[in-house]
Amino acid sequence: TYTTIANGNWNTAATWQGGAIPPSTVTAAQTVNIRHTVNYNTGNPLINNGTFRIQPVTGTTARLNVPTGINVENTSTGKFYIIDASYVQFRFVPGNDGQPYSGTAPGAALQSGTFKNIGGYIECRNFYAEIAQDWTNESGGKRIYENGCIYTGQNFGLSTGTSIDTLLGVNLSLGWH
Asked: How far is residue 27's CA from residue 47's CA, in Å, rounded to a whole number?
């Protein structure tokens, strides 16, 4: 099990309890607990085969910031939770006017990156999630969203044969990319 003890970068030992840095590919036997604000800075795709939980403890803010160009996969053995927390991969970087979400600002740049649930389980409650491009659910995956906001740059997909998504009290914004 890997658990954060402070805000910081993924690849910094001081961010993690015992100084053990989790791998970019989380195995089925591993658990990653993000209890603080963490910047994912490995340069590799994030692949979850185990349990991945973004959830604060008293007095902390839990958030995973993912840079442009990074894809995330939650596989058939993966369980991914965002509870009272945020997962952020910005759709745009600021233009010349300095506004972070303005696609019309001079110099605004589109970001890239997807989040695929490939047969796994995703649960988000009291959350904020922003994905640069697509958030898809495929191969029998299940996603539950309650009380939150989802912003995707392109698509929020559900493949044929996949469990129906549950969205309850969710603001869903699509296609700003």
From this structure: 9
Sign of CA dihedral 54, 55, 60, 61: positive
Q: How far apart are CA 101 and CA 17, in angstroms?
A: 34
**What is the distance between the alpha carbons of residues 25 and 49, in angstroms, rounded to a whole number?**
7
Q: Which residue has the tokens 């296609």?
A: 175
DSSP labels for 132-174?
SS-EEEETT-EEEEEEEEEEESS-EEE-TTSPPPEEEEEEEE-
How many whole angstroms separate alpha carbon 134 and alpha carbon 150?
11
Residue type, 109: A
Q: pLDDT tens for residues 8-55?
A: 999 999 999 999 999 999 999 999 999 999 999 999 999 999 999 999
Q: What is the pTM of this model?
A: 0.89
Task: Provide the residue type at 117 as one letter.
Answer: N
Name the β-bridge partners of 145.
124, 167
Element at 149 (helix H, strand E): strand 142-152
